[in-house]
Fold each of these.
Amino acid sequence: MTNENKLTLAGLAKLASVSTSTASRALNDNPLIKKETRERLQALAKEHNFSLNRAASRLRTKKTNVIAVILNLTDSTDQSISDPFLLKVVGDLNQVLNKNGYELLLSNSLMASEDWANYFISSSRADGIIVIGQGKSTSNIEQVAASGAPLVVWGDPNASSSYAVVGSNNELGSYLAAKHLIEGQCKNILFLGDPEHAEMNERHKGYRRALIEHNLNTSSELTLSCDITSKAAYDTISSVILDKGLFFDGIVATSDMVALGALKALKERYIGIPNDVSIVGFDDIAMAELFHPSLTTIKQNTKLASQVMVEQLIKQLEGQKATSVVIDVELITRRSSRSN
Amino acid sequence: MTNENKLTLAGLAKLASVSTSTASRALNDNPLIKKETRERLQALAKEHNFSLNRAASRLRTKKTNVIAVILNLTDSTDQSISDPFLLKVVGDLNQVLNKNGYELLLSNSLMASEDWANYFISSSRADGIIVIGQGKSTSNIEQVAASGAPLVVWGDPNASSSYAVVGSNNELGSYLAAKHLIEGQCKNILFLGDPEHAEMNERHKGYRRALIEHNLNTSSELTLSCDITSKAAYDTISSVILDKGLFFDGIVATSDMVALGALKALKERYIGIPNDVSIVGFDDIAMAELFHPSLTTIKQNTKLASQVMVEQLIKQLEGQKATSVVIDVELITRRSSRSN
DNA sequence: GCATCAAATGCAATCGTTTGCAAACAATTT
DNA sequence: AAATTGTTTGCAAACGATTGCATTTGATGC
């Protein structure tokens, strides 16, 4: 029952006894064409299940209406691809992009070839690129920026960079987290995460600022470096307690997943949360409030962030210059910390 | 510094003093061309940062090498888009598709126009469609199938359908879940989920089979219908306890998110898990083991499932017929249930 | 030296739109 | 009635690759 040879614009035009140019303009709702002609053709197209061949129109117009979204994973530990936060961002971006007439081509840094600008833009697969996460190395990203391709990155907006970065106020976020713990009478506060990573480094700064402001111990012993997965956090906390005992009473975690891993390690040792140890996460993933105790965390506004990213990208598609934008964060107080 | 007018295949050919046909074949590694010529051109292309214009080649070859993945969300409650399970499947699909030379165009049923086959396939945006979730109505999907477009659906593989469905053995999964609870001495086992939904309906059957096999109460009072979100589950359990007290000692939940919502409602009332009430989830999301108590659940093998889906889709792209495939499930025993 | 054959390359049409420009048409003014 | 507008439509040339077929090239045998 499939059409032997598919209907083409020329065919549709013939059916309507107009030229292909008229048909093309009519379907694109070009006001050059008389309104009733437009409607007649649009109705005919619907009736015959016709839709324009995008390959052809992309070739002709040099516009794809596609945005490549690249999950910039740090390692090949495909753990991170399951981080609900990253995937949440993809979901939100999808919504916003569609709303603006763009489609989302999903990729990840492990798969895509090296030269992203080349692969996606000059090959005319996409009009612009959104990279989620700066990873540890930003050379790939800088190469895209240098090529002049429309680009927006989710990451640390404070890093001076040649490209537009949208991201949360990470420094403030962890500052708020640490301050909150301090107000809850914590004295020895752990930082749990990977300070080599741009965003995490900012979070580390905020954590230190709060501690210093309150004359607390900022010894390097209190900064535990670990991957941004719950498993890594679980292992790190478990082994550090085994080694040194419980020498801390608060944890500033760099993500909710990390916080949850730590939580599990503590609970397995019957350490009371929040009384023995208080924990603050980062992200506010959907599950944060379901945990027991529910997780105090720094909320990242992914919906707003997605809107801003798309906005800044569209700016560039229109030839304007885009800017980095800082998204506000918010402390969400729940049960994993003492409410002063 | 961006090239005034981009290099084209013809330009590259001229640089190499060959015809465009030779250049085209060389870049596509066609053995018709002498090996050293091929290598010379490929090197030249790399040197000049050249890549083939996909819009043009798609137009000519009528192949896009793109697969549209549609998240078939039930409602406009964009809650479900954040279900980590769905997004995990997207991530896995992305991996497998890329490995097979395809790209993933992400969409969701709320955004995409009505006629998917038309929108994606005849418009030459994609070569095939993968739908994640059958939703409550399958009319959209059936329309695609009727159009003859290459299609694979993640859903209930037992439903007799005109299209290839890949999915877990849902009936068996919930049977195992219920049986496990029964072996742990549960007598009044709740089913929590939405039996109108195809997959959930299978799970309901499995649940009933186990109960009947053991002569337990299958009264309809024990089947609670609720949306597949943690919030809905939380509300449902909370209000049912308020209404009728604790008349159950086990819960078969239709997803981990649902299980976690229920867990929270119970814990807030200081109901002991697993001793007062045991819970089994479904999916085995990454967080399942992080909870306290860690969640006993039925694991869905999304990695394998993704491979099978892509396999079945490629079959169709090659003109063969695809078949529905049932993916094995596995009971993962943790602490939210008594180990008999 | 010429026919024969295989290997390597080139010619030119084609995929299905879009769009600058010209043409046809209708309405208004002189 | 001709000239002047303004609307609506059509012609035909792109866009940049791929590919069936023809052609060249070089090797081989007689």
Amino acid sequence: MQRTRFGDMACSIARALDVIGEPWSPLILRDIYVGVSRFEQIQQDLGVSRKVLAERLKWLVESGVLKRRQYSDRPPRYEYTLTTKGIELCDLLLVMVRWGDRWLSGEAGPPVRYLHHGCGRIGHVELVCSECGLPMHATDVDVLPGPGAA
Amino acid sequence: MQRTRFGDMACSIARALDVIGEPWSPLILRDIYVGVSRFEQIQQDLGVSRKVLAERLKWLVESGVLKRRQYSDRPPRYEYTLTTKGIELCDLLLVMVRWGDRWLSGEAGPPVRYLHHGCGRIGHVELVCSECGLPMHATDVDVLPGPGAA
DNA sequence: CGGATCAGTTCCTTCAGGGAACTATGTGTT
DNA sequence: AACACATAGTTCCCTGAAGGAACTGATCCG
């Protein structure tokens, strides 16, 4: 980790970073999301060192984002799956993808596309307000102190 | 950074992490978004080391997320502002906040709330499909190879 | 028995982060 | 003129995290 722990700050961004802010963690989450769910597979797919991978998986399981499941008794074999908390965290990945596609994919175009089950079309995520359904971006909101303010 | 650079991977998540994935970067972005825009202010607000803060600001400017603007000639004083690319990156923060509020804020409730200009109510972001407007979460899509695939 | 697979753990080296001190430039104060 | 003060960094040393390769242990295959 990055030495300073963010988990105790009165800031949901900092707390979220405490869970998935470490190097490789979002990519590990992505792999498990798309079905690359075993230690060896993830290690080879990402090229992350085995040491770091073991540390990250342990932390993500402790944080309740992943579950470690034994899918074979003999020989003992394990896979990692997403919890509900982890699945919802994947929303973050979709938004990262959207931004990366727009600003960093260059000539070649986006490396992957997303087929939406709801309409059967290729699309991307848009952010809307939970209350009125209109677009809700950083410029469309005012930040106010909440009940859990410092 | 975390030794291994992610910028060359054929993955928009990895590319986005290359820009914003280093420790402190999302918190620096948040500070600038809410108006904490000068070196001293950010350093004191976050408690980040001056060395790391200088490195991150430099990289975020090089990446086109921030602009360094001189707002006083004598004495020379600077502030950091968001580019369009940077403002759009703040969408990511809104989604992180939403997840952190839901899963990590505990008893006290969310530390901040968001007032939506569009409807004047306190709300949070929801993800919908750009094509049909229906909810679009990680479980609602299939991942397909795109033109820029590896 | 030897070799292969999976899931890690251990070890060593290098480099990034923490933290304090220092620099540079200009302002206001006595 | 001398001094403190503010901003925006830079430099230094020390510690700890990441990279990478080797090693462990359990089990199956031929």
